[in-house]
Amino acid sequence: LLQIEQALTGIAEGIAIEELEKQGIEIDPNSLPAKIEALERRLKDELEPQIRDLSEKKGAARNELQRMDGSSKAAQKEEEAQQALAKVRRLAEYYVRLRIAAQVLKREVDRYRHENQDPILKIASRYFSELTVGAFSSLRADIDDDRRPILIGVCQDERPKTVKDMSSGTRDQLYLALRLATLEWRLQKHEPMPFIADDILVNFDDARAKATLKALATLAEKNQVILFTHHVQIVETAKALGQNDRVFVHPLNTTNM
Q1: Count of CB atoms within 10 A of residue 153's CB?
Q2: Is 185 helix (H, G, I), strand (E, B) or coil?
Q3: Could you give the CA distance from residue 201 to residue 208 in angstroms, rounded to a whole number?
Q4: For residues 204 and 233, what is the distance between their CA atoms, to the nearest angstrom?
Q5: How far apart are CA 161 and CA 152, in angstroms?
Q6: How confident is the model over 193-248, as pLDDT tens digits?
Q7: CB of 185 within 8 A of CB of 145?
Q8: DSSP H or E stretch at residue 226
Q9: Hey, which residues does 150 pair with through a beta bridge?
Q10: Rounded CA separation 173/123 (Å)
Q11: Which stretches does DSSP call E strand in 15-169?
């Protein structure tokens, strides 16, 4: 931490660490990924080619200088070499500043994601483990090869599995877990709002359908849950939960529809 603070103090041009922290808080986190991408693109497309070009010119000038005698032309080339070296140093310093700025921005993005996503992700992990009957132990956020945020399911044996590697039924359970987690997290600071779903158990096997109905029944203790279905087996499974104080079946008359 001391080394990082010293490095920040060196590149901040007199700005105090507290002011840097204040500026970091005032930054819109949603704009940070675009800024990071723009900085990295500028480093790659503008500064790195300039540094290489100037380094090559410096090397060529020195080689020519070694072949010269003590005439004024040699002194002129030496001066040009020193000017090129000074420009390389300025560009190198600017390059370092941009790299550090990119790291600071990335850290702010990670901090924002940690503060705003982790509570929901923790709740979603519990729901996902419950809905998959323990096939998955948790969820975690990660970054793919293109530095894009992705969601990873962690199996009981600690094997990670991406969303595209999951079956269609497991993906349905994942999306449902995220939706229920968002709703539960919202309940901590807001009034309850109805959760309404239409035949969301179509791709669930019997065990996972039963686990999902149990989870919905538990949620019904503090939030209204309405589930529409035309599958008799789902109705029978709900009745078999034995939670008549929370699970109510309302047949709809569809003869005139």
Answers
A1: 26
A2: helix
A3: 9
A4: 12
A5: 6
A6: 899 999 899 889 999 999 999 999 999 988 999 999 989 999 999 999 988 888 89
A7: no
A8: strand 225-228
A9: 142
A10: 14
A11: 136-143, 149-155, 160-162
Q: What's phi and psi for 29, nearest 5 deg?
A: -60, -30
Residue partners of 205: CB distance under 8 A and separation at least 6 = 169
Q: How far is CA 230 from the centre of its chain?
A: 38
The DSSP secondary-structure symbol of 147 reads: S
Specify the DSSP class assigned to residue 249.
Answer: -
**Secondary structure of residue 48 in the 3-state scheme:** helix
Strand partners, 228: 198
- How far is it, in rounded angstroms, from Cα 130 to Cα 125? 9
Q: What is the pTM of this model?
A: 0.53
Q: Is 127 within 8 Å of 215 (Cβ atoms)?
A: yes
Nearest partner of 219 among 200, 257, 247, judged by Cα: 247
Residue 33: CA count within 13 A, CB half-sphere: 9
CB 120 within 8 A of CB 181: yes
Summarised one tens digit per residue, pLDDT across range 140-188 is 888 777 878 888 999 989 899 999 999 989 999 999 999 999 999 988 8
- The DSSP secondary-structure symbol of 214 reads H
